[in-house]
Amino acid sequence: MKTNKIYFPIIITMAVAIGLLLGNYLNSFQDSDFLSKNTRKNKLNKLIDFIDREYVDDINTDSIVDLTVNGILENLDPHSVYISKKDLKSVTENMKGDFVGIGVNFYVYKDTVAVIKPIHNGPSDRAGIKAGDRILFADQDQLFDKKFQNDSLFSKLKGEKGSTVLITVFRKTTNEKLKIKVKRDVIPIKSVDIALKVNAEIGYIKINRFAETTYDEFHKALLSLKRQGIKDLVIDLRDNGGGYLEMAVAIADELLKDKELIVKTKNKKGTEDETFATSKGDFEKGKVYVLINENSASASEILAGAIQDNDRGTIVGRRSFGKGLVQREMPLGDGSAVRLTIARYFTPSGRSIQKPYDDKADGYFNEFEKRFQSGELYEADSIKVADSLKFKTKRGRIVYGGGGITPDVFVPFEAKHGEEATLMIMQSGVVSYFVFEQLDKKRTFFNTLDFKKLKAEVIEKDDYLEAFKQYISDSGIILNFSDKEKIKKYLYAEFVKQLFDDNSYYEILLSEDAMIKKVLELN
Predict the structure, then answer these.
(1) Among residues 190, 323, 486, 518, which one is catalytic?
(2) 46-81 pLDDT, tens per residue?
(3) Is 36 labeled as catalytic in the residue annotation?
(4) 296 labelled catalytic
(5) Which CATH architecture has domain 192-410?
């Protein structure tokens, strides 16, 4: 009994000691795996809490969180990005393909909201708002003499479907102030800019992005062109930065035969998903031409790659951007979101077209300048491809990976050396604003002109060319205006767009388009 009494405390002590040691070991094991991850997460939360409670000055910790998230994402790839709560709504609307509003194209001209043109058959058009009207009030909200951001202006004009807003406008042509009641409605944000016939047999569809409505818009346009008797099709993906992969796949399915591979994706775990064309398809016969340039990216490259690798059509233009990463938008719980890269995609031949992204700063996205300096915009021979990244199409043609889709038929940049900036200005919104202001000076006169008289006014005279030169010069921009005829053509097209319709605008520009001319040669 005495012996038991002597050793019992020792046994208890040893058990406690072993328990402590084992506990420390287990804690150490957990900290090095699961708990260490929680510690890293808690570290950021604690820091924000410390700043909230203890920092000497008042700080907007939301802005700190935004900076922190952006800082983390900057260490990933260039396409993993943070979307703030403020920006997410407009981004979502843009990709959704519509919003509820009054339906006007406008810009702020001399601190006043000026209507460039009401959307045809939209709420404002039906209510009687006209091009050139100045919007002074939306209900009781004053919209002039204030430095509004566009999103603030939109919020005044948007609302629930079917709701009404009393718009007060000043109409310069009649020098009167009018109150017009507008019933808000769904306003489409088109992703298919235009669908028209280039000639009797060739149809043309221009896609500006891949949004939720893109396939439906494309399919409707395709069927309309088929009813008009087209045999061949041009799909214009120039300056299309991408969007939803599913939309590119759905469009490819209309062009490819049953069971032809469209795209492959591979995620972090190495899991591969393959997407094939189905038996449906409204344009599986007939020639297909896809137009691309240095700003065609992501979903545009998926579509172009599927057409090229299956030998379904001809890719015309210049090497595409080179984005082969797939993102998923993930909500962060506070109205913001992160768009995170979750996979890589591969064309049917197995090539990745993602270009290197060691330079994650502006240099990665500034593709035009780099390609201009290398000479690639003007010479196909300047395109750098690696022999180690050779792949074969379905029929055995050689194609290359490693940075964009290289076209089957190269078309150089349209402007001559030294005139690149001029062409980019002519394709920007600057021309739209200039033309609006010219129309605004004598809108009654311009409203009396038909196409022929308008062409004579803009093309045969130098008045608007000289006015545009002065307009650009007053903005502090120095440009080369040696190609006068091309500049006049862009000005005339914009006059036609604002006075008449989009179809006529595109018909004018496409008649001089170098890639369309190449398609007509090939066809």
Answers:
(1) 323
(2) 877 887 888 777 877 777 778 888 888 888 889 999
(3) no
(4) no
(5) Alpha-Beta Complex (3.90)
